[in-house]
């Protein structure tokens, strides 16, 4: 059926009139067995088509066809996925609010509130203004809106994917630069989205169409060589299938066995990224077996392995451990009697439906449009939870670039399956670390992570996890996240929780500092404001509470003296009655005694951010604080992104440290508990002539935790020191943490 509909879509020629569009619509409806004339939904879909045709009357596409051909094409694609009638109606109407005088209220009144939600979600995605922002900022806003729309009703993403696929099928009418941009976005975002939601048939076509635009020469060469090899490959596949089909029948199994086509983009990817030759890829044959149920899947696997030699290291059981997109199947590779490698996939009919249609399969039997029932589907709830976590994480992102990077990471399809000590399965993106695992288990576990064991062995927190690993997280109530973790965590959940922790910690520090600064200033004028006075003052300054005002003073957004002046004015006192407040004198000199040089001025006080404690060699920037001079931060400091929003207060600074200047750095060491560990650490420090301001070593269970505040000359000096400490027997982790951290 799917091939038939795609044939209808691609080969029936250009539609020139509304009558031709109606004929195409009727042809599509006839192919969908659950929408025959006696279906209760057919009349509503036909009414939606006429509604859309009337709304778009007089509008044409760049190809010259009536505009109705686009929503009709989107509806045709979705009909191959066996979606419910509500989704088909939403597809037909998805552009009426954006491009015509129809409102969302009109749609909801005519076709129901659920269709109204779908159309409104699609309309919001199209209402992106092209203002002064960069393309990346507009793209980030677009995908944020898409996530929010999907969170209301997942069927929005099905319509959007079909919308993109139809546009890719008709992309030849667009200018070359526009085609390149759309194709790049399609292969980087939409194809992974299709995979993430399990819509395999859409994903494959999106990738192939994108390749045709992005690398037309490679696409043409692959197409030609696949065509040349087709007869030879089909002959080999038949030699494999026929005896296998007979054996399955003899065993009393109801099974369909057929060869699988290789998609051009998949071939291209293996050539480009895996360094395989074209011949290697095409020589590898692919077969799929479809059976009735799970038990039959494993029976069929036994038959395949009994007839042909299995390549055991290439076996994958995605029935016991499904992929995040609900995909289930048994994967194995065997050698046939002629020595060819054959990829075999074995799955049930239901698994095959999910593999092809993914999330769309979960609406196939929900033709009554029961949204509550759909939302209670366990598989759909998993998707909604994933979306909510992604949206929650995106709120913590500090730039469009960071948001898009996080989105792409979370659309990567490769996963690892690891286990908790109690045997619970945790799915994570490939490349994840124990820190990602800890936050996946629970936020509190992540926030108190101290160390980790993989398969019983102590490992650094940056260690990459692999399939089947048993991971144990060691926690401590005195531990807290390290900003260095942001360098290696992979999941948006871990990244957003770490950033949120540091933002809150920064806020609390700013509140305390701001309150202290205000109290010092107000004491000089011999005033003691009440809580009521302070709240009124905060409101006058645009803050909802007193803490927010303290924080604004602490980060330099408000000057303590000015706030005190405002308070006195509120109480009817003239500023001339105030006690004189001495201005802070700035240190002067050809270079700053702090070890940094300020671009354009050497007459400013400089301090180092306690949140990141930079060392010579760290890339740095200065933040001009109104009361604290220049505060120097590392460029990768978690607070720098927030501070840099006020670009006028960011200044360039350079290191100007002498060869004997030293700077404080705190190291956290996690080790296996053993005797004489402190002695060995002291010996390393002595050999390196390192001055130690603090040495603290304690044990928690079977591990030791060391906290050292040391004076080092530079980043390279620190790197050498960490390397030498890391070589001490039993030491598994040496982390740089903030000097301000209390652990």
Main CATH class of the largest domain: Mainly Alpha
> Which structural class matches the secondary elements?
alpha+beta
What level of helicity do the residues show?
A: 40-55%
- Computed Rg: 32 Å
| End-to-end gap | 63 Å
CATH architecture of the largest domain: Orthogonal Bundle
Indicate the topology:
Elements: H1 2-11, H2 18-31, H3 42-55, H4 69-79, H5 85-93, H6 96-99, H7 104-111, H8 113-126, H9 135-152, H10 155-169, H11 176-196, H12 200-214, H13 216-250, E1 256-259, H14 264-274, H15 278-283, E2 285-291, H16 294-307, E3 309-310, E4 316-317, E5 330-335, E6 341-348, H17 349-357, H18 371-375, H19 378-395, H20 400-409, E7 415-419, E8 425-429, H21 434-441, H22 443-447, E9 449-454, E10 457-459, E11 471-475, H23 492-524, H24 531-540, H25 546-554, H26 560-570, E12 596-598, E13 606-608, E14 620-625, E15 629-634, H27 640-643, E16 650-651, E17 653-655, E18 663-672, H28 677-687, E19 691-700, E20 703-712, H29 715-726, E21 731-737
Parallel strand pairs: 2-6, 13-15
Antiparallel strand pairs: 1-2, 3-5, 4-5, 5-6, 7-8, 9-10, 9-11, 12-17, 14-15, 14-16, 18-20, 18-21, 19-20
Helix pairs in contact: 1-4, 2-4, 3-5, 4-5, 4-10, 5-8, 5-10, 7-8, 8-9, 8-10, 9-19, 9-20, 10-11, 10-12, 11-12, 12-13, 13-14, 19-23, 21-23, 23-25, 23-26
